[in-house]
Write a structure and sequence with these properties.
The chain is built from three helices and no strands. By secondary structure, it is mostly helical. It has a domain of 91 residues.
Length: 139
């Protein structure tokens, strides 16, 4: 298929290709988001680990004000991690909803094509029957 006919196919409201493209984009976006969340979690784990070590040192040396400050910072980071995770979950849910909607459009287009094909088959059967009847009448 050349690029011109592919573009026409993608822009055709009755085309399956038009609906399949968004599904591929959605899957790519999901993969990207999964990788991004993994990076965020690794960074957050490292940051919290460093802060815990700093808190432990402050606690052991009796620096109560500093240990409270570090605990407050750790709490803020934990809240941010939770917010990032919630955004990821909502994004993933949105992606899944879009994927289901795109899949539904593909199913609808497939059903339309099946209906059209059934109509073509019915016409072929009628044509074949007419040809046979004409052959019997002539022969």
């Amino acid at each position: 298929m050349n690029s011109h006919s592919f573009a026409e196919e993608v822009n055709d409201p009755n085309s399956i290709e038009r609906d399949r493209i968004p599904v591929l984009k959605i899957l790519a976006e999901h993969d990207h988001n999964t990788g991004r969340v993994h990076e965020l979690l690794c960074h957050a784990r490292n940051q919290l680990s460093e802060e815990f070590d700093a808190w432990h040192r402050a606690h052991v040396t009796g620096e109560d004000d500093r240990s409270v400050e570090i605990l407050d910072r750790m709490l803020e980071h934990a809240k941010q991690i939770e917010a990032d995770a919630l955004v990821y979950e909502l994004t993933t849910l949105g992606l899944l909803i879009r994927q289901v909607a795109a899949s539904e459009r593909v199913a609808q287009a497939t059903a339309r094509m099946q209906t059209e094909l059934q109509g073509v088959l019915v016409e072929l059967k009628r044509w074949e029957l007419r040809e046979r009847l004409d052959g019997l009448a002539a022969g």
